[in-house]
Amino acid sequence: MAASPTDPAQAYADVVARIARATQGAGRARDAVTLVAVSKMQPWEAVAPVLAAGQCVFGENRVQEAQSRWAGRRAEVTLHLIGPLQTNKAADAVAFFDVIETLDREKLARVLAEEIQKQSRSPRLYVQVNTGEEPQKAGVLPQDADVFIAACRKAYGLMPEGLMCIPPVGEPAGPHFALLAKLAARNGLVKLSMGMSEDFETAIAFGATSIRVGSAVFGARTQA
Ligand SMILES: *Cc1c(COP(=O)(O)O)cnc(C)c1O
């Protein structure tokens, strides 16, 4: 069901109930799946009721937008960066986020490693995988994932804890989720960030440990 933009608290409660049903249906514990509420491009009137309802994990696409939305409430929330990260924003991202889900190239690995050293701050890291091999999409290609993860560990001393993917629009997501789970398992990674408003129940069935849900909670975004 589409969320009504006027009642995010109700939409949030519906999504929470659907997560409970999906985890139960998959024979998984309710707390095996973290809801990352994607607040990007949402007006504060949509975000405030969800925060008030007890949600404390949020996802943002852009470093600056996240800073302006959350700087005043930083201590109350856990923040995930889920959008592409430019190396010139890496210092700000390390300083501000708890989790960076979009590690996808060696140059970024190097700069993140330097910033983590410099700032003595270690956001949790996910490697983004371009499971659909879409030219316009960020993420390492599936066939490059093993080598990239090994390089993160050995060359840069980074310890990614999981993988993230965004399946192609208009394709069944299940095979992409299965591929991500397989890549994670064979690299000893236990976290899977997969599933959005349209497909989070499928993702939970395929082992998602966190789902990134925006419009189903907050309503349609004002911009694309
Ligand atoms: C915007 C976004 C989401 C949330 O998408 P919805 O379809 O609104 O749930 C999830 N993940 C990423 C990477 C996004 O950019």
Q: What can be said about this structure in brief?
A:
The chain is an alpha/beta fold.
- How many helices? 9
Beta content comes to 15-25%
Relative helix content:
25-40%
Radius of gyration: 17 Å
* Gap from first CA to last CA: 20 Å
Provide a descriptive summary of the structure in words.
By secondary structure, the protein is of the alpha/beta class. The chain is 40% helix and 16% strand. It has nine helices and eight strands. The protein has helices at 8-25, 44-52, 63-70, 90-96, 106-119, 145-154, 174-186, 200-205, 215-218, and strands at 34-38, 57-60, 78-81, 99-103, 124-129, 162-165, 191-193, 210-213. An eight-stranded parallel beta sheet has the order 7-6-5-4-3-2-1-8. Strand 1, helix 2 (44-52) and strand 2 (57-60) form a beta-alpha-beta unit. Helix 4 crosses helix 5 (106-119). The longest helix is centred in the N-terminal third of the chain and has 18 residues, at 8-25. The model has no long low-confidence stretch (mean pLDDT 96). The structure holds pyridoxal-5'-phosphate. The site of pyridoxal-5'-phosphate has 14 residues, from strand 8 and helix 9.
List keywords for this structure.
224 residues, 8-stranded parallel beta sheet, binds pyridoxal-5'-phosphate
